[in-house]
Amino acid sequence: KQEVTQIPAALSVPEGENLVLNCSFTDSAIYNLQWFRQDPGKGLTSLLLIQSSQREQTSGRLNASLDKSSGRSTLYIAASQPGDSATYLCAVKWNYGQNFVFGPGTRLSVLP
Amino acid sequence: DAGVTQSPTHLIKTRGQQVTLRCSPKSGHDTVSWYQQALGQGPQFIFQYYEEEERQRGNFPDRFSGHQYPNYSSELNVNALLLGDSALYLCASSWYKNSGANVLTFGAGSRLTVL
């Protein structure tokens, strides 16, 4: 069964800290993996998309890595800011099927 | 360039009623996927429409049905509403033939409350 899990479920850090969010998935035969941000009661905003042939992607203070063999992806946020407070969701598309399977998300709070 | 638009933003229904949610995809996109997101959980895939046909379906009962129009807009219909159908319903659009670099673009969602 295709499953995506995220650890931790919630995280609270002081402003300025570097932090890592974790995503794990069953079955290494993925097509790509996408990280999203969701503000309370809002839709999802795509942050980074990593193709199966890639090891990492970077956008500003965000860096996402992919290790297919271990079934893991990490989202690294550098120099966190209060505006980074949101829920971060990992979604995986496997080689078969068109839909993404989402993890439950990590709720991040960055304290000023 | 308009993104994905969904309507209505909020609605309240009672058990047993029927509801229709609407979605207009991002300009240039031809594929619409619908997701249900319960409070505190990740989105769950309902189904995907391309060329006016349902292409893939998640683990949802037949009470959930959809439609795609020639202009690529889409509707999600839910019949015989249950309390458990209360959720944020998200529409995502993409370009089917570029699925290799398929970045999903989501709308803001329709918040359904079933009383």
Keywords:
heterodimer; A: 112 residues; mainly beta; 5-stranded antiparallel beta sheet; B: 115 residues; 7-stranded mixed beta sheet; 4-stranded antiparallel beta sheet; 11 strands; 50% strand
Commentary on this structure:
The complex is a heterodimer of chains A (112) and B (115). The N and C termini of chain A lie far apart (41 Å). In chain A, the strands form two sheets. In chain A, strands 2, 4, 5, 9, 10 and 11 form a six-stranded mixed β-sheet that branches. A five-stranded antiparallel β-sheet of chain A has the order 1-3-8-7-6, with no helix packed on it. Chain A has strands at 4-7, 10-14, 19-25, 30-38, 44-51, 56-59, 62-67, 72-77, 86-94, 101-102, 106-111. Helix content of chain A is 0%, strand content 59%. Chain B is mainly β and 115 residues long. Chain B is 0% helix and 50% strand. In chain B, the strands form two sheets. In chain B, strands 2, 4, 5, 6, 9, 10 and 11 form a seven-stranded mixed β-sheet that branches. A four-stranded antiparallel β-sheet of chain B has the order 1-3-8-7, with no helix packed on it. In chain B, β7 (64-68) and β8 (74-78) form a beta hairpin. Classes of the chains: A mainly beta (112), B mainly beta (115). Chain A binds chain B through residues 4, 31-32, 34, 36, 41-46, 49, 51, 89, 91, 93, 97-105, and chain B through 4, 33, 35, 40-45, 48, 55-56, 58, 88, 90, 92, 99-109, 111.
User: Which structural category do the helix and sheet elements of chain A fall into?
Assistant: mainly beta
- Described by its quaternary structure, the protein is heterodimer
For the largest beta-sheet of chain A, the strand count, sense and barrel status come to: 6 strands, mixed
Provide the β-strand percentage band of chain B. Answer: over 45%
Give the strand tally of chain A.
11
Provide the residue-averaged pLDDT of chain B: 92
Separation, N- and C-terminal Cα atoms of chain A: 41 Å
Helical residues, percent of chain B? under 10%
Percent in strands of chain A: over 45%
Shape descriptor of chain A reads globular
Work out the number of β strands of chain B: 11
Number of contiguous helices of chain B? 0
Largest sheet of chain B: 7 strands, mixed
Largest interchain contact:
A-B, 25 and 28 residues
Low-confidence spans of chain A: pLDDT under 50, at least 5 residues? none
Please identify the structural class of chain B as seen in this structure.
mainly beta
Shape of chain B: globular
Average pLDDT of chain A, rounded to a whole number, is: 93
